[in-house]
Write a structure and sequence with these properties.
The chain has about 190 residues and is mainly alpha-helical. Helices cover about 85% and strands about 0% of the residues.
């Protein structure tokens, strides 16, 4: 009973930390922060927001706001994608590792659900799961945390996940920067 109680407390603390993280990002004003730090440090700002935003579902919009502003401001889309992608990977890795630690402490009912999910994933070839994860991270605007926490709870190989995170986050950063930059230019031509 003692072990179960400790596991529940650990799991509750994890959920509390996530809730606090989300709250902090709901009160940060990205534009004021950029003005205070300075546009000359744009890549550092993006890396910082990537690292912090990658560890929070609600932090991602702040990251994409900074990416948008810097892309429109004339920064290199390739460098923005690489720097931002590496920052996001740091934040996502933290979430992944928390998921790994928390999966071991989750209540029994939750662990049963994880076992069922793990059995479904094991039926698919590894390359297929890795490709789906790359497509999800690199080409969708959905939060990475959904996939990352799930894979962390399932204790998927860390090196593989981190490699896919790096590739996917850099891809999404470069694509996002290019779409923003050229989308704005197209709108200027139309008007």
């Amino acid at each position: 009973m003692k072990k179960r109680g400790k596991n529940i407390i650990t799991f509750t603390i994890f959920l509390g930390v996530i809730a606090l993280w989300i709250y902090l990002f709901s009160i940060i004003n990205v534009q004021k922060l950029i003005v205070q730090i300075g546009v000359a440090n744009g890549y550092a700002i993006l890396f910082l927001f990537g690292a912090i935003g990658g560890a929070s579902v609600l932090g991602s919009p702040s990251y994409f706001l900074v990416l948008t502003n810097l892309s429109i401001g004339g920064f290199s889309p390739i460098l923005l994608g690489i720097v931002g992608g590496l920052g996001l990977t740091i934040g996502n890795t933290v979430i992944f590792l928390i998921g790994v630690a928390t999966g071991k402490k989750a209540p029994e009912k939750f662990q049963k659900i994880l076992i069922k999910l793990e059995k479904r994933i094991e039926k698919k070839p590894n390359w297929f799961i890795n490709l789906l994860l790359y497509i999800y991270i690199g080409f969708t605007p959905l939060p990475n945390e959904v996939a990352i926490i799930s894979l962390g709870l399932l204790e998927v190989k860390k090196k593989t996940i981190i490699f896919i995170l790096v590739l996917g986050n850099i891809t999404s950063g470069i694509l996002g920067s290019l779409l923003i930059r050229y989308g704005v230019n197209v709108l200027k031509i139309i008007h």
